[in-house]
Amino acid sequence: MQDDNLPRPLLDPSVLERLRAELDDDESIWRVFVENYIKELPVRTERLRLTLTTGDLRGAVDAVLSLKTSSQMVGAERLAGLALNLEGELRQDSSRADPGVELPHLAAAHLRRIMQCSKQTRYALRAQL
């Protein structure tokens, strides 16, 4: 069980190995899958930034779910955890506050760490290739 006070590992190599096994140890398919994640990561984080800063609640929830789920699939545990935390705040605050006001505050609170972790994750995954 993950202690919430400790940072999650940047990558969980067992997830990458499990993914490789599920792809019947086909290195070329595994490599394309990971490369596509790396290529799309800046697009996903930019979409998250845009939806948060413009107060688009529905878009922000969709963007954070996309980031979380795709990160979980490649074992990007720390980034998935940051997305999970933001998702929780989005869901909690969505019923009480004006998204046009609240989402930019969430952007200020979360985006710097998410963007930094995204860069670290891309570098770490490239090293796995």
CATH arch. level architecture: Up-down Bundle
How would you state the average pLDDT, rounded? 92
CATH topology call: Four Helix Bundle (Hemerythrin (Met), subunit A)
Largest sheet: none
Distance between the termini: 29 Å
Poorly predicted segments: none
Share of helical residues = over 70%
Mass-distribution shape:
elongated
**Domains (count):** 1
CATH class: Mainly Alpha
User: What is the overall number of helices?
Assistant: 5
Which band does the percent of strand residues land in?
under 5%
> Helix- and strand-based class?
mainly alpha
Radius of gyration based on Cα positions = 15 Å
Encode the helix/strand succession as letters: HHHHH
Number of strands: 0
Protein name: HPt (Histidine-containing phosphotransfer) domain-containing protein
Written account of the structure:
The chain has 129 residues and is mainly α. The chain has a single domain (13-128), classed as Four Helix Bundle (Hemerythrin (Met), subunit A) (Up-down Bundle). It contains 5 helices and no strands. The protein has helices spanning 13-22, 27-53, 57-74, 77-94, 99-128. The longest helix has 30 residues, at 99-128. It is elongated, with a radius of gyration of 15 Å. The relative contact order is 0.18. This is HPt (Histidine-containing phosphotransfer) domain-containing protein. It comes from Arthrobacter nitrophenolicus.
